[in-house]
């Protein structure tokens, strides 16, 4: 359970709100000992206020990151998914496929261990690992600190792998240009309907592990239909970090984004 974002309540996250609005609405579980409805309302309002303050603070740091990235023409992506969908495998494959064509750096987010950052370094890119402890998402302040540590190059690519969690990272802006959601074919077609906030917040979905489709009952067309029902503007690339299927479309998308960021 997340000790930071309060996801012990029911979380409803939308796109990043205007300043002063709450992005997240929490319905508290009915655990209050008070029978007085006024008292219960007061507690709920206080929790909502705390959450708004927390998100407003995060948004301030995200704005600083975004400005910093814009000034240096850096294209930054926030990769979000359930644990084990293949985020790090896709990053490793991407680094190898780019073979130095684009300067890039990686920020890794996990509750514990340095494993993913080590995999990225072995693949040949600079990486900083953030361990969130009990937290279940990256926040913009820690990402800003990691950016400073990485000494990012102008006109480069910054790939941020968020903590594996299909809920909470949707509500936290890190200053990225886009959220990229990874759904793997072993997770079931209905995940976009069950966890719509993440698919709403993303601009691109990578449907990963497509090499496994011949062995599964997973209906890829249906999964994509569900994702685009939740977010009609969502772009989709079918991909496999193992076989390399879809890598050329993904690399073309990355290069187009980098070109736009460096021209801006
Ligand atoms: N068959 C197949 N396996 C894959 C593919 N991509 C990743 N995997 C496997 O999926 C498992 C998890 O991959 P990771 O890259 O560690 O996934 P992750 O999303 O980074 O995981 P967390 O960081 O723990 O959330 C590993 O055993 C990978 O080898 C793929 O395209 N096809
Ligand atoms: Mg990983």
List keywords for this structure.
264 residues, alpha/beta, Rossmann fold, seven-stranded parallel beta sheet, two-stranded antiparallel sheet, 40% helix, binds guanosine-5'-triphosphate, binds magnesium ion
CATH classification class: Alpha Beta
What would you call the structural class? alpha/beta
Q: Which architecture does the CATH hierarchy give at level 2?
A: 3-Layer(aba) Sandwich
Radius of gyration: 19 Å
Tell me the domain tally: 1
Count all strands and give the number.
Answer: 9
- If you average the pLDDT, what whole number results? 90
> Per CATH, what is the topology?
Rossmann fold
Note the total helix count: 8
Order of helices and strands: EEHEHEHEHEEHHEHEH
Q: Taking strands numbered 1, 2, ... along the chain, how are they ordered across the largest sheet?
A: 5-4-6-3-7-8-9
The portion of residues assigned to helices is 25-40%
Beta-strand percentage? 15-25%
Main sheet, how many strands, which sense, barrel?
A: 7 strands, parallel
């Amino acid at each position: 359970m997340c000790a930071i974002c309060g996801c012990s309540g029911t979380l409803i996250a939308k796109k990043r709100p205007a300043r002063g609005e709450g992005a997240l609405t929490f319905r508290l579980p009915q655990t209050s000992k008070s029978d007085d409805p006024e008292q219960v309302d007061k507690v709920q309002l206080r929790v909502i206020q705390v959450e708004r303050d927390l998100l407003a603070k995060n948004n301030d740091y995200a704005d600083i990151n975004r400005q910093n990235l814009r000034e240096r023409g850096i294209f930054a992506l926030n990769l979000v998914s359930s644990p084990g969908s293949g985020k790090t495998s896709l990053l490793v494959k991407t680094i190898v496929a780019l073979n130095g064509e684009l300067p890039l750096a990686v920020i890794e987010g996990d509750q514990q261990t340095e494993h993913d950052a080590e995999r990225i370094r072995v693949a040949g890119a600079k990486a900083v690992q953030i361990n969130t402890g009990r937290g279940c998402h990256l926040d913009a302040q820690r990402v800003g600190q990691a950016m400073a540590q990485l000494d990012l190059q102008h006109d480069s690519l910054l790939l941020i792998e968020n903590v594996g969690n299909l809920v909470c990272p949707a509500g936290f802006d890190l200053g990225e240009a886009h959220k990229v959601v990874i759904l793997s074919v072993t997770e079931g077609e209905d995940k976009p309907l069950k966890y719509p906030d993440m698919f709403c917040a993303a601009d691109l979905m990578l449907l990963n592990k497509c090499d496994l489709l011949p062995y599964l009952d997973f209906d890829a067309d249906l999964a994509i239909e569900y994702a685009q029902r939740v977010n009609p503007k969502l772009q989709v690339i079918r991909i496999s970090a193992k076989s390399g299927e879809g890598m050329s479309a993904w690399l073309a998308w990355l290069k187009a984004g980098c070109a736009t960021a460096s021209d801006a």
